[in-house]
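Sample pair:
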Amino acid sequence: MPQTIIAMAQINTLVGDISGNTRKTIDVAHQAIAEHQADIVLYPELTLIGYPPEDLLLRPSVGRRIQRALDELLQASREMSAAMVVGAPIVEDGTLYNAALVIYQGKVVNTYYKQALPNYQVFDEQRYFAAGDEAATFELNGITFGLSICEDIWHPEPAAQSQMVGADILLNLNASPYHRGKPSERQELLQKRAEETGLGIIYTNAVGAQDELVFDGGSMAVGGDQTLCVKALGYSEALVPVAVEKTDSGIIMHQGEVTEPMAPLACVYQALVIGLRDYINKNGFKGALLGLSGGIDSGLTLAIAVDALGPERVMSVMMPFKWTSEMSKEDAGKQAETLGVDYASIAIEPMYDAFMSGLADQFAGTEKDTTEENLQARCRGVLLMAMSNKKGYLVTTTGNKSENSVGYSTLYGDMAGGFNVLKDVPKTLVYELAQFRNDMARKCGDADAIPQRVIDRPPSAELAPDQVDEDSLPPYDQLDRMLELYIERDYSADEIVADGFDKETVYRITRLVDINEYKRRQAPVGTRITKRGFGRDRRYPITNGWRAGD
């Protein structure tokens, strides 16, 4: 028998753009046939509407729009030599399913309904879909292909069911979002399913970003002997062929291109880059605008923005006050010049003084406190938002996960903006990523993307004389470990204390996390890179009487 070519179509779709996604699906099929002589083109989960569509699925017209898209695919497929395996929400007898459809030469050959509907972390598919309970297969060139969708592969039953009904190869459509460590988890999982069933598995994953989620691609094919035969590059669109053959001794999956796994820090960095790029581009902003303070958070954010959009689409603004050090001003200007971005410096002291004059009667008889510090941040927020309105650039905030966790940020000040690149990045990881980005530059013979003394100096908000973060917070290595245990692993305060931390400090930090939910609920969306970020992942009540303890 001749080889059968399955092209993994690792594509970036736009949620809700059913007509645009449909045209892309057809174009990619033609490309797969022309470039790879594909017999089957395998797309990501919910190809036609994008993932996750959330409450768009509740719109009354979604069924009509999907049907028009399917009619277009059926018409296009009449002149194609390849089958398309696409994902779409399908209504049957008034019930909505997450489906995979096999479209071949003008017909829907078979339809599979996703069985395992995730309802944890960032997923809430049980809100929308009913679960299927049957396997679905189709035959081409003497090979029987089984179908499954994303979460199905994380459970043994759907793959075993496909094997029991005679599948030779399992095709799996995915929209699997990234978090740290996820790429290796997927490969190990596919190899486990292959070991259990003896089936080769071809796994196409989406790529691109949708709000806080990043889909990192990394589509792959694993043989029935658990060998990794093909692996696509992550973080970019790709069309990657997998050759399979039926022989007298069984199904052979031929060895193809296997990309080297990316280093963990490179994975995180690329996730942040694609998260910002797609948010700005898909929402129609001209570029990114950020306050450049001379500190490490804004320095890393600027580097990511330049890598995401190019320097010509990034604007930076230094907004000094009397407490701003000369070092910060110098480093901000140097970085902007090195990266080639638009740079301005606007002193906020006149605005601050005007506010203080207007508030003089209200503040009479009171002592200075954080109110005056927060007013500085709010002056900066007003400036950035005004420039955003005028120029059409998205304000990109620069707070990290450690600060956002404990409320070390100013509502309507440094939190004012449309997207937060570092929202799910702990402070210790900020330092690692900054050094990683500089190491990248040095390997290419370029100047540091972030001035080295920005990385080396103690972090400070510079809202008061000689202020450093550790005046208010524990050392970041300790803080980040406590926050990881409390936020990402759901340890109680007492369990964190048992892990080796001071009880008073732990109770204070966990209390700060709890009482600052109101701030985070008003914070801009940002890229998720951990197993539990703030946003879709973690839904705690703002008003609650929970207290630290066991």
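The first helix runs from residue 18 to 36.
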